[in-house]
Amino acid sequence: MNAHLPILLVVVPLIAAPLASLARHPRLAWAIAMGASGWSLYAALTLLSRVRLDGPLTYALGGWPAPWGIEYRIGIVNAFMIVIVASIGTLVTPFALRSVEHEVDADRIPLFYAAYLLCMTGLLGIAATGDAFNIYVFLEISSLSAYALIALGRDRRALTAAYQYLIMGSVGAAFILIGIGLLYVLTGTLNLADLAGRIQALPSSNTLQVAFALLTVGLSLKLALFPLHLWLPNAYTFAPSAVSTFLSATATKVAVYMLLVFLFTVFGPAFTFG
């Protein structure tokens, strides 16, 4: 099983999400979320230990080798990011048992835990994957579930906050998708390691600079970098307490990690600062 930990890290909470939504009792949904987040923490710590001992780990989905297939690549930096997301998720879930019962309508609590697990799935997937388009897919999974989590707050202003986040998040996601598409047109690959090698061999062009600008602005929207942070104050204020705690400690931090990956690994410091 240890050989498949990179994918199980993401698959287990992904499968647990619909199971939580089907649970008839709110505390059963909580138990499913607690089990899935606990498993993610175990997998994250095991992967971190293996990376420290053996170096970076790669996992080719479907048996297709990189760069043709989707590759999960776990290095020391994203292993720590995975541990942060999994540990925060595991710490927040016990706190959510009581707080969610007071802040979310009882009939919506199973849906809350389903969205919570989907958000965790997306954030873990972003940190684990080595494929640019996979980053976009997991980014949308985490973002869409975050919109729903914020909207579950009982204050009606939570709906406005979620809508504002939805609009700005969708603009950021569109910029990221177009930027990734331009990189694919230029290089013919979506694998991050392969992208980095091919971009270094390319002459500087307007298309490459536009892709860089779109990705930088799109990711800055996701990480709430000033002055693109207008969605964040209301989202954290009117969301349920467990949601504010989880998102503030994970979502924007994973977005910072993504920005650093593109700036320093994919484009490289020479292009970024040149």
Characterization of this structure:
The chain has 274 residues and is mostly helical. Helix content is 77%, strand content 3%. The protein is built from 11 helices and 2 strands, in the order ααββααααααααα. It has helices at residues 5-22, 26-54, 76-103, 109-128, 132-151, 157-187, 192-201, 206-222, 232-238, 241-266, 269-273; strands at residues 57-60, 71-74. The chain has a two-stranded antiparallel sheet with strand order 1-2. Helix 3 runs antiparallel to helix 4 (109-128), helix 6 packs antiparallel against helix 8 and helix 8 (206-222) runs antiparallel to helix 10. The longest helix is centred in the middle third of the chain and has 31 residues, at 157-187.
Record field, number of beta strands: 2
- Strand adjacency order, main sheet: 1-2
Give the helix level as a range of percent: over 70%
Structural class estimated from helices and strands? mainly alpha
Query: What is the ordering of alpha helices and beta strands?
Result: HHEEHHHHHHHHH
**What is the overall pLDDT average?**
87
Biggest pleated sheet: 2 strands, antiparallel
Measured between the Cα atoms of the first and last residue, the distance is: 45 Å
- In what range is the share of β-strand residues? under 5%
Number of helices: 11
Low-confidence stretches: none
* Rg result: 19 Å
Q: What overall form do the CA principal axes indicate? A: globular
